[in-house]
Amino acid sequence: MSEIKIIGPGVPGVPWQERPRNMTGAPVWRYQDNPIIGRNPVKGVARIFNSAVVPYGDGFIGVFRGEQVNGIPHIYLGRSDDAIHWEFDEEKIPFEDEDGKPFMPVYAYDPRLVKVEDTYYIMWCQDFYGASIGVAYTRDFKKFVRLENPFLPFNRNAVLFPRKVNGRFLMLSRPSDSGHTPFGDIFLSESPDMVYWGRHRHVMGKSSEWWESVKIGGGAAPIETTEGWLLFYHGVTGTCNGFVYSIGGAILDINEPSRVLYRCENFLLTPEEWYEERGFVPNVCFPCATIHDADSGRIAIYYGAADSCVGLAFTTVEEIVTYIKDHSVVREQDTEAGRR
Question: Is 209 exposed, middle or buried (0-12, 13-18, 19+ CB in 10 A)?
């Protein structure tokens, strides 16, 4: 059997902790000093969670969902030498429009941060006559330019692929409603220029598996591997005490990502620790980013915990891809390549 590898650059400083010796079977394990970002992390911000990070220069940089003390979420910039200990700007990111005029969203939450070629793109959920997707770009993390809204409301969980496929940008999203969305499937859209979006394809929907029986949504940016695009996403179930958010995994076709090759029937991480079960919104593990090293195959997963703090978990590309394939249930709706 050929070795499973990450396709991309090496990141020698990727955060890492070996699997606990007494842990067997599970393909993902938590950082022993979680949470890495706790409450009241910066002046005027009560909680940081559901945030995204990338390697940058000699260290790391990230866009963070900061829940202000007035309850309104906005996006803040953070920097780190080791991707574990973070320092944050006290002021939220100052977006401007393409004419250079200030253009702040009314609110902004659950950001993703993805580098495509020489540009870093930020996606988040904002208000555009209801919940919708906002997009901006930066090349230096000093100037942040907002682009036109890619989709009509209502929509959430935008995730950009880290490179163009067949010459086009690709973005995952989850059409929704104006509330807390008791439904939801993942769709794929294409764009030649990050402005006009079309060729929408269905990727996959909720399933009969208990842990993702209500809705699903995109998580971290897909990781390119020799087996296809590795996707960490969130799946939601309903209980007598509300929703429970867990992390799932799938592998998409490298040239036709609306086609699901493997989809794990089991969750990869579910609320079990106190910081995941207890918080502003209990029982949430919500993935938004990974840092991964092509040389070692190591993957660090960043996730929001109970809408209150940030957790970190680890796996390797060999372990996680093998586990997903060994526990895969690909349903008919996942093999229709997007059904036009």
Answer: middle
